[in-house]
Design goal:
The protein has 6 helices and 43 strands. It is mainly beta. The protein folds into 3 domains: 73 residues; 295 residues, Pectate Lyase C-like (3 Solenoid), CATH 2.160.20; 49 residues, no CATH class. The strands form 8 sheets. The protein has a 17-stranded parallel sheet that branches. A 7-stranded parallel sheet has the order 15-18-21-24-27-30-33. Strand 5 and strand 6 form a beta hairpin.
């Protein structure tokens, strides 16, 4: 019986094993070994799409994303939504001109990770939607507002795309503030010499009861115009003609003028501009005052804030570009209006990436600046960084280069700077000992950058990196040519259209009369000299 029982158990085990193998064979036979293929996708390749939407792909069977792989849109990793055999990629690219979906080979597989998809790259052009400026400011009443601040107040909060405001020629006497949540404000002036935002404000208690001054020191009492004066009912934010708290600000063809500085050509502090956040750009603008024209301000816990100015005119005499944020000024004029002018006063915190960089600029000035020596700057606080690269000095610069202030330099240096005679500027006599409190601190840094060191200070490194912010594109790669074939037939003005124009501005003898998305406008037959400007998607004007 013992042997019979043993044989029986062996037969049972063999039967179970055969049944298991049979089930396994059936399971293997049910695996779909067909190739993983793409059946269809929408929108069609090469078509135009909106700035936000979804790209949908349908596969021959259920898919999943393989571990440790990335699917990207415009180079940025995204999280796709997969339902069985359908893959959806949502995108929002309000500032881009294209949408590129990249699925690398092997990033998608079947559910058993056996069949790998070969990969795909789809590119779409973003359809340019015709649109008017969101607001037009015109002192003559031909726009939506006669006040720049009222146009800004009407802008949406926490926007993720440019809010376009056009400002017609005129003098707008007002304080302007871009609030913290008003991102992507684009202020576009008609003409930098004729579109002027001006205000008279000082940042001083001189002339107050607490700080009396000699009656003849100033033509007017600065305390009368101080934001510190309770009688003016101003907040601590109102320290300049324009103060910017909103990220992604852009201005073009504007003048910001503090009329205390330009009217008196003397101190105290009278800022034309104060910038306090990241991604702020100016193109073809003028900043005018005497002392502390542009305050490039930055919080100690934010060392990455970027400011950019291209083809601008910055005027002053005392510390007229100052502060702690990163700043790149290119192709611009630093215009001095006093003998012994001091251009900069910086106060960068330890760890600041770039400091203040003036590149491909001209240092110039009026007759008073020409009559005596002038200074590149002085160290205000912390660890200041000031660099002048490829700069042409048209006025005499002091042999000491720099002055004392409150600390010693972190880095003060130049590369390829020429003097008023067109010769390489010598740094042999530059100041190395700085009075800091009761002590003298020696600066051991090299005043002359090497070619390799200077090569690091590029637009791409300072401005574009690390997030791809590229304000130069607003008025260079996206710049529109002059409008052609402007003709008047009766009361109908017509012109040649442009594919990349969102709208057109029409002027009569330089006076704004209207905007349209069409290529015609009904006008006064008695008009004398009609001109038309095309507008790109950033609000920038054509030639």
């Amino acid at each position: 019986m013992k042997y019979i029982s043993t044989i029986t158990n062996l037969f049972v085990c063999l039967a179970v094993a055969l049944m298991f193998q049979s089930c396994k064979d059936n399971e293997n036979n049910n695996i779909d070994s067909s190739a993983l293929t793409l059946l269809s996708y929408t929108p069609e390749q090469g078509g135009n799409v909106a700035t936000e939407g979804v790209i949908e792909l349908t596969f021959s069977k259920a898919v999943r994303q393989a571990p440790d792989t990335e699917i990207t849109i415009n180079g940025k990793a995204i999280r796709v939504i997969i339902t069985d055999n359908v893959v959806r990629a949502n995108y929002s690219e309000p500032l881009a001109d294209h949408v590129t979906l990249d699925i690398p080979e092997g990033a998608l597989t079947d559910m058993n990770s056996v069949q790998k998809y070969e990969g795909l790259n789809l590119k779409y052009e973003i359809k340019l939607e015709k649109r008017l400026y969101d607001a037009v400011v015109d002192i003559n009443g031909n726009g939506d507002y006669t006040s720049v601040q009222k146009a800004i107040d009407a802008a949406p909060s926490e926007s993720e795309k440019p809010y376009l405001i056009f400002i017609a020629n005129g003098e707008y006497e007002e304080y302007v503030m871009i609030p913290k949540k008003k991102n992507f404000i684009h202020l576009i002036g008609q003409d930098k010499d004729k579109t002027i935002i001006k205000y008279k404000v000082t940042i001083s208690n001189e002339g107050s009861e607490q700080n009396p001054i000699a009656p003849d020191k100033y033509l007017e009492n600065p305390w009368t115009y101080s934001y510190l004066n309770p009688a003016n009912n101003m907040s601590s934010e109102q320290c300049a003609v324009m103060v910017i708290f909103g990220n992604d600000f852009y201005a073009e063809n504007l003048t910001l003028e503090n009329t205390w500085g330009t009217g008196h050509k003397t101190g105290p502090q009278a800022d034309a501009l104060c910038t306090r956040v990241d991604r702020i750009a100016f193109y073809n603008c003028k900043l005018l005052s005497f002392q502390d024209t542009w305050w490039v301000r930055q919080a100690k816990n934010d060392l990455t804030a970027r400011n950019y100015a291209d083809q601008c005119f910055i005027q002053g005499a005392v510390d007229y570009v100052y502060g702690s944020a990163n700043l790149l000024v290119e192709n611009s004029t630093l215009y001095n209006i006093r003998t012994g002018s001091v251009i900069t006063a910086c106060s960068h915190y330890e760890g600041t990436l770039w400091g203040h960089v003036f590149k491909d600029c001209v240092i110039d000035g009026d007759d008073t600046a020409m009559s005596g020596d002038n200074f590149f700057g002085r160290p205000w606080q912390n660890a200041p960084v000031e660099l002048f690269i490829n700069v042409d000095c048209k006025i005499p610069m002091a042999s000491a280069g720099w002055q004392d202030m409150g600390t010693s330099p972190g880095l003060f240096a130049i590369y390829d700077v020429t003097d008023k005679n067109g010769q390489p500027l010598s740094t042999d006599g530059w100041k190395r000992d700085y009075n800091v409190g009761a002590e003298t601190v020696h600066y051991d840094g090299n005043f002359n950058l090497t070619e390799a060191e200077a090569a690091k200070y590029t637009y791409e490194n300072i401005i574009t990196s690390p997030d791809g912010w590229n304000p130069k594109a607003f008025y260079t790669t996206e710049k529109l040519p002059a409008v052609e074939n402007i003709n008047l037939y009766g009361t109908t003005l017509s012109w040649d259209g442009m594919n990349k124009a969102i709208c057109y501005l029409v002027f009569d003898n330089g006076k704004f009369i209207g905007q349209t998305t069409e290529t015609t406008m009904e006008v006064d037959v008695n008009g004398e000299n009609y001109t038309v400007k095309a507008v790109n998607k950033y609000g920038s004007l054509s030639d």
